[in-house]
Design goal:
The structure is a single chain. The chain is mainly α and 151 residues long. It has 7 helices and no strands. Helix 2 packs across helix 4, helix 3 (20-47) packs antiparallel against helix 7 (124-150) and helix 6 (91-116) runs antiparallel to helix 7. The longest helix is centred in the first third of the chain and has 28 residues, at 20-47.
């Protein structure tokens, strides 16, 4: 079904070039570090495992996380294109994408809640969302690593 994608010029370049796949993987990891780094710190603060900074201080760094996500989306699509027919049927890949999707939806919801928070007070629903967000990001990373072993 995805063979047409694997036969595009970009997929061929990614799959056949000596440097394309490892370079894109490095860019993908950099984007991941930015996205997960920002949201991890935010979520740890919201669940109460960190005492500082104030929750609304995570509004500005979220823009950086979205830039990291864009970097991940582009590099991830390029990596996917080179083995699309394999990844498309992979349970690990499907879980990874599902967790990322849910993590980004939660990011939007949590960021909206942060705009409404005055001071240090975090309600229990926001704490719960942050906890689920943490689980999503850790699960996405684990599922992504499992791709190397389970295909």
């Amino acid at each position: 079904m995805f063979l047409w994608l694997e036969n595009t010029g970009i997929a061929q370049w990614v799959g056949l070039s000596l440097y394309a796949y490892p370079s894109l993987l490095a860019v993908h990891i950099l984007g991941l570090a930015v996205v997960v780094g920002v949201f991890l710190m935010r979520d740890l603060r919201l669940v109460g495992l960190l005492r500082h900074p104030a929750p609304n201080n995570f509004l500005a760094p979220a823009r950086l996380a979205w830039a990291g996500f864009a970097l991940n989306a582009v590099s991830g699509f390029m990596l996917f294109s080179s083995q699309a027919s394999i990844f498309a049927v992979s349970t690990a890949f499907r879980f990874k994408i599902s967790f990322i999707f849910l993590g980004m939806v939660l990011a939007v919801v949590i960021q909206r809640r942060l705009r409404e928070i005055a001071g240090e007070t975090v309600d229990n629903n926001t704490r719960l969302l942050a906890g689920v967000s943490l689980l999503c990001w850790f699960s996405a990373i684990i599922a992504g690593r499992l791709l190397a072993y389970l295909g």
